[in-house]
Write a structure and sequence with these properties.
Layout: H1 2-21, H2 34-53, E1 66-69, E2 71-72, H3 81-85, E3 87-88, H4 90-102, E4 106-107, H5 110-119, E5 128-135, H6 138-150, E6 156-159, H7 173-181, E7 185-188, H8 201-219, E8 225-227, H9 235-243, E9 248-252, E10 266-267, E11 269-270, H10 275-282
Parallel strand pairs: 1-5, 1-11, 2-3, 4-5, 5-6, 6-7, 8-9, 9-10
Helix pairs in contact: 1-2, 4-6, 8-9
Length: about 290
């Protein structure tokens, strides 16, 4: 529609300019002073421009894969298949980052995704991808963070706040702040990582609101992104995420489009162990 408005506006403008020059004669058409005709031309062009720039982008959809990681550490021989699902070795993680780099992919932040959605395009980036890390495991700092810096990539780390400085398996504040200062996004993953499907409305509010306040207090910057534990969601949960002042909510592993209406219903997928499956996920084949 925008394209046609612009075309019509300029056709009319050219037509009026031709009339000024006397190259078209239309019987019965009253001659206008040149200054009045030029004013009409300007008005036509301005109208076309205004309609072009104010067209709503609410129907825009972006196709950006969002990938979920948990632990990044060397694999242990005694691990079960279920445990392996939540762990990727540093070598395999680097293999994936190498593939992204060599095949034209660009890791982007969730803030960038929101800005791209507002613009209606990811241009000049043609193959964006969002990497996210859940829970705040210390091994993410030890293994993933150095590799992200090595390949000049960015990622979002969703941290739940209760184990910070209490459990040696999890990140401490200095590590979280270091990653944030290096350009990584720190998001909230609740306070205690409970099952939201079993929580009361009051408990849900505390998990969503209080974790944000704690992170912002220690980081000294706004925390704009939330991920629900276990990918559990409902309309009530998504409403609370929005009310708390977040910009996005990653809430499900069921595929859903990235639109303005779905910013609090973002879907993401567990990282595959196999490189071919990883490629399939990037190419939207999984």
């Amino acid at each position: 529609m925008k394209k046609y408005l612009v075309q019509i506006g300029f056709v009319l403008a050219v037509f009026l300019l031709i009339l000024i020059c006397g190259q078209i004669s239309i019987p019965g058409l009253k001659s206008l002073p040149q200054n009045e005709v030029m004013a009409s031309v300007s008005q036509v062009i301005a109208t076309a421009t205004i309609k072009t720039t104010t067209t709503s982008r609410s129907d825009q959809t972006l196709n950006i894969p969002i990938i979920i990681y948990h632990s990044v550490r060397p694999t242990r021989p005694e691990e079960t298949e279920a445990q392996k699902r939540y762990n990727i070795s540093p070598d395999r993680f680097e293999e994936q980052l190498t593939y992204l780099k060599n095949n034209g992919y660009t890791t982007i932040s969730l803030d960038q995704m929101v800005a791209d959605l507002e613009r209606g395009t990811t241009s000049p980036i043609t193959k964006p991808v969002i990497l996210t890390f859940d829970d705040g495991w210390k091994n993410q700092y030890e293994y993933a963070f150095p590799l992200l810096k090595k390949y000049n990539d960015t990622a979002t780390f969703y941290v739940y706040t209760n184990p910070i400085e209490k459990d040696e398996r999890f990140l401490i504040w200095s590590q979280i702040k270091e990653m944030s200062d290096a350009g990584m996004t720190i998001g909230s993953h609740s306070v205690y990582h409970p099952y939201f499907s079993k929580a009361t409305p009051a408990e849900l509010k505390k998990e969503i609101f209080n974790s944000k306040k704690t992170l912002e207090k220690h980081l000294g910057k706004k925390v704009s992104h939330f991920a629900t534990p276990y990918g559990q969601t409902s309309s009530q949960i998504e409403k609370l995420i929005k009310e708390a002042g977040y910009t996005t909510g990653r809430v499900t592993t069921k595929k859903s489009p990235i639109t303005k209406e779905n910013l609090f219903h973002l879907s993401a997928f567990f990282v595959p162990q196999n490189l071919q499956d990883f490629i399939g996920l990037l190419e939207n084949k999984n």
